[in-house]
Here is the input.
Amino acid sequence: MSYIQQQRVKPFESDDVLLEFFYSIWKTVKDRWASLWHKDSKLLKKVGILCLTQYITNALIASYDWERLDISDPSQVIKHLAVLLRHQDQKFWVLPWVPSNYDTPSGRALIVESLVQISRNLRGGDLWYADVKVVDVSQLETMPQSVYSLRNERVSPLY
Here is the structure.
């Protein structure tokens, strides 16, 4: 939550708004990506929580800055977050990553950069993992079929 506070967004001066924002993010992630909610998921490791929170916070604050989102309204946060998650792929969190220590500032930056790239890939009609440096793409062919059955829920666009 400290990353969220560091953004110096006026509504986050209220602890209630800050907590509601954080809870809205993670309740929505849990609801939409329930299959990733297990102890071995990279999503639920420290680096996953920090990086996804940062990626989502950056995107939602950009919408706030453009006056497209009332960041203090949980229903609007959830609606915008649904669109963000539509442009991510759950497989990122279960496929092997290129061996490295990602629990460092530069490692976390690389994961956030990967999340941005995944979103751009999906919006552009490319393979989700194109130019994503973290994912070990050589492992894609050997992954169990259950990994490929992970699907992102489709939602209507906001605009």
Observations:
- Residues 14-148 form one domain.
- The helical segments are 2-5, 15-32, 46-65, 74-86, 105-123, 145-148.
- The mean pLDDT is 90.
